Amino acid sequence: MSNRFFVARFKPLLAVSLFYLLLSALLRLILWKVFGPGSEVGWTALPGILLVGAVNDLVALVFLNLPASLYLGLVPDRLARSRWHRRLFAVIIFLSLFGLIYLAQVEFFFFDEFDARFNLVAVDYLIYPREVLINIWESYPVLWFLFIDAILAALLFGKFRERVLTAFSEPCPWRRRLPVVACHLLLLLPALWLSTDSFDFSTNRVTNELAHSGISSLFKAFHTNQLNYDVYYRTLPGKQAFALTRAQLEKDGEFIDSNPENLNRRHPGRSNGLGPLNVVVVVEESLSGDFTGIFGNRDKLTPNLDRLARQGLLFTRAYASGTRTVRGLEAISSSFPPIPSEAIVKRPGSENIANWGKVMKQHGYQVSFLYGGYGTFDNMNHFFSSNGFAVSDRTDIPNPSFANIWGVADGDLFNHALDYFDQRAQTGKPFFSMIMSTSNHRPYTFPEGIPGIPAKGGGRAAGVRYADYALGQFLQQAEEHPWFDNTLFVIVADHCSRLRGSAEVPIAHYHIPLIFYSPGHLPPGRFDAPIGQIDIAPTVLGLLGLDYTAPFYGIDVLNQQGDPQQHPLLLNHNHDVAMLVDDRMVVLGLHKTATLYRYDRKTNSQQKLADDRQLFDRATAIYQSAYELFTRRLYR
């Protein structure tokens, strides 16, 4: 009966497919057990997770098995039954088992880091394999994992070996093979219309992530790496989108003409400004607000930052634009909304756009971007150099005291910055510089001999301690330089360290420290209204009293009209973009969806609300107009 109703040649493929389904189900159970409780994913959600997950895995198998299915169906019988071919196929089966086991481990650690299946971050990492692979090598016992995986794969292969060797032993004419291939091709038709989130059934983001397939999530991320906004997201008629955008920005500056697609606004200088101080923006890698004592952390990880918060102007409700370094850099340097999928730092057409550095150059500033790593990563060197910044990266720091795959230690970067600023100060012109740190990142390795900070093995806590230590040393040493008394320091994180929470856009994990520090010029204080990273440039320019004309989407929050609590925050998470206004958040997603939530800051919870067309249109207008201006190269 088996010979009549099943083609023996396909039995190894069936066996590996069943193993994949069982392994995926086991991984879901482990992920649910480890990460579910922290995101309120209880027992009642588990049946749905496993059922929907199995469907997603079956859809993934349709694509995964296609090459093998075509090969098994088309390879001539004489070749298939040869001894060398059977041995080759046995090796392929072993490598497939090994790869599936290893991939499951990778998925676990990715979920641990990002609270999600493979997403756009995974795509970014694959684009830069050198940094990522070495980072993984230094962060995890990779050899042990590979060794264990090889043993497990070998034990499993022992179960499959006889089946593989005998699968090609009997004749299998093409008329028996081709119907199998034809059925597989027919399954492609419905599968092409499905994605890993087609069967999402919960309002809890993590519940849906657990049900997703990691492999299909990765392919979806590749496919949607740079999306056409007009095709995938909610839109308005073009004129309406720009009219609404102008209406939101008209209170910050004066539009220079009536062209609705020109967002350039004239901002006159204020006589009570601080004047043309040097400006140094220190962008701290992954420094979440909840690491700091100023926001309630009792582990004393950031004594220097806490002291600066008391001595400078602290923004208590500052939020990152996204979850990647390039999102923070695009927002701070260009005051530009985080349009869906890829940041403009990495997109074609990002040259010569409107940016903070260009405004400072118009006022005679020397403009630079300093980075502790190699600036080819994430296209940073090209982006900043093509937008008027002098770039100095790892290649300009030849003998650091310590370095790992991400770059030199923050202490070495800051020492380089001190020398760099000394040279600029000798010209007599003010300087504006952005410094991007790297140390607070896996593998969390640091210079030897720093009290309380182990050189390795200290994890994220050691990373935060070292970042704070290096920042404190930098500012202490800067006080001894003549330019210090004439400098405004802006200390801000690029993004938070981790993205936890069940919400589509977990706002609590976007909260970052932001401090303006300039002893003798800026008295200590607090600002308790919302501010996003796109607002930093306009706010500093207003504080200095510099006049300028630019199409910035951010505003000077220290001199805004109306209720400061109503100032919108613009956020990106994977494929979604959001706008938070007071306690209401609009989330715009793929397939032109729009959802409204109420956000409770005290409990960090979100509750779905009835649709609000007016609020949807406001959010849509911002992201649609920003995408149009960038892709048509009009953000000038």
User: Would you count the extended β strands for me?
Assistant: 19
Give the overall average pLDDT.
90
Structural class: alpha/beta
Describe the largest sheet: 9 strands, mixed
Give the amount of beta strand, in percent.
5-15%
Number of helices: 22
Ends distance: 72 Å
Sum up the overall morphology in one term. Answer: globular
Rounded to the nearest angstrom, the radius of gyration is 27 Å
Low-confidence segments: 1-5
Query: What fraction, in percent, of the residue positions are helical?
Result: 40-55%
What is shown here, in short?
The protein has 22 helices and 19 strands. Strands 3, 4, 5, 6, 9, 10, 11, 12 and 13 form a 9-stranded mixed β-sheet that branches. The protein has a 5-stranded antiparallel β-sheet with strand order 15-16-17-18-19, with helices on one face. The chain has a 3-stranded antiparallel β-sheet with strand order 1-2-14, with no helix packed on it.
